[in-house]
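step=encode ok
step=design start
structure_in=
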């Protein structure tokens, strides 16, 4: 008759057997990759458990994200409404000043300035030549675009159209080394010539005498000379003046207002005296009928 309390292997024996089995499985898995099917099966088996374990955290993160996004959208919407109201007030003031300016010009016998026509365009390509700064836009001859046409963005002058195809046009940026533009200082109406340096963040003013009344921070706008750019559009701000007497002229650098390195949407202008006419798409016709100075 067997004892009810028969003793099994000792604890040391059990430990040795467990270690032997573990080392054998590790060797087989390392050399023969024998445990890969087992790992795959176990991963598949416990995957739902893992998803359930992280589900509360994911749900909480999503709720926090939606709440934060909703709050941000509310705040942004409120700010945009305030900005829209301010812009509407500014437009009303601008219309009053335009009418007053026209009346004064009529009293003085000067020609009343006519409004320019405009059309929005999108950048579809950027020239890869490191020595030339050009863009390709999605408007061309079919839209009334012509060579030499001024191009702006929401900050200031970008450049001019240098070549036109049927549905696209190539724009030469004001930072290109081959480009020059006539400007005037808004503070005192001093006329200067700004030339591209090849740096998208920098223009250089040419032939500036040391005694010229220019200061860092002066705003430079288009002068209207040359027949390319209409008068009064912002172009650049003076950022440095070097009046070294050993140089024949002062070295004056300016930073363009337009973001030439990241521009996506542009504005094509047809000055009042342009012989070409804009041809709007159906969806642009209403917007194209609005004018800007």
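sequence_out=
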């Amino acid at each position: 008759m067997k004892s009810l309390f028969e003793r099994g292997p000792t604890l040391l024996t059990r430990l040795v057997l467990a270690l032997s089995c573990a080392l054998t499985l590790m060797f087989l898995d390392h050399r023969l990759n024998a445990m890969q099917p087992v790992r795959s099966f176990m991963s598949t088996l416990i995957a739902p458990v893992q998803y359930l374990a992280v589900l509360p955290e994911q749900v909480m993160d999503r709720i926090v994200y939606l709440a934060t996004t909703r709050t941000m959208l509310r705040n942004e919407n409120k700010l945009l409404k305030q900005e829209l109201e301010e812009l509407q007030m500014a437009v009303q003031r601008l219309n009053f000043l335009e009418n007053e300016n026209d009346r004064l010009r009529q009293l003085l016998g000067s020609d009343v300035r006519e409004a320019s026509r405009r059309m929005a365009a999108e950048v579809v390509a950027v020239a890869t030549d490191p020595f030339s700064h050009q863009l390709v836009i999605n408007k061309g001859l079919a839209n009334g675009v012509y060579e030499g046409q001024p191009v702006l963005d929401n900050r200031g002058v970008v450049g001019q159209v240098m070549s036109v195809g049927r549905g696209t046009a190539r724009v030469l940026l004001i930072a290109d080394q081959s480009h020059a533009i006539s400007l005037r200082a808004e503070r005192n109406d001093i006329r200067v010539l700004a030339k591209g340096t090849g740096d998208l963040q920098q223009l250089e003013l040419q032939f500036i005498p040391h005694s010229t009344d220019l200061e860092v921070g002066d705003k430079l706008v288009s002068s209207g000379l040359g027949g390319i750019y209409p008068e009064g559009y912002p172009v650049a701000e003076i950022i440095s003046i070097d009046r070294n007497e050993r140089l024949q002229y002062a070295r004056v650098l300016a930073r363009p207002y337009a973001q030439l390195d990241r521009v996506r949407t542009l504005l094509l202008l047809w000055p009042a005296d342009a012989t070409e006419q804009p041809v709007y798409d159906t969806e642009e016709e209403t917007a194209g009928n609005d004018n800007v100075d």
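step=design ok
step=annotate ok -> Residues 36-108 form the longest helix (73 residues).
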